[in-house]
Amino acid sequence: MPAGTLPGMAIPVQITLDAHDPLRLAEFWAVALDYVVQPPPPGFDSWDVFADSIGLPAEQRGRLAAVVDPAGAGPRVLFQRVPEPKEAKNRVHLDVHVSHGASDQRASARAHAERLVAAGATVQREVDEPTGWCLVLQDPEGNEFCLQ
Question: Who wins on pLDDT, 137 or 10?
Answer without folding.
Answer: 137
